[in-house]
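In this section we walk through a basic example: taking a raw amino acid sequence and producing a predicted 3D structure, encoded as discrete structure tokens. The instruction is simple. Fold the sequence below.
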Amino acid sequence: VQLVESGGGVVQPGGSLTLSCAASGFTFSLYDMSWVRQAPGKGLEWVSDINSGGGSTYYADSVKGRFTISRDNAKNTLYLQMNSLKPEDTALYYCARAPGDYEYDYWGQGTQVTVSS
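The resulting token sequence is shown next.
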């Protein structure tokens, strides 16, 4: 199993970024997937979930209305569209395979998002 995130960077407050997570080594379309982040000096924070078919999505209150999770099962890729970014969104963003509720068995290496003027 391999999960590889990309798309992070430095963006000004109010800006947008789209993160991608390329999955391989398993049948991507059979698994729920999650985005989880870790801000500097803080613990892990769940951000968003999407079910295996892509029809159900869930968001932390802190990102609801600003972030959109999606997936392309034909491309084995998970996405996180982030709009109206705030300095408090600065974190290392991980994608994770989620075989159960708040259960993660494989993680990517993370991609850094920095929101700063």
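Looking at the output, two observations stand out. DSSP finds no helices and eleven strands in the chain. The mean pLDDT is 97. In the next section we compare this with other chains.
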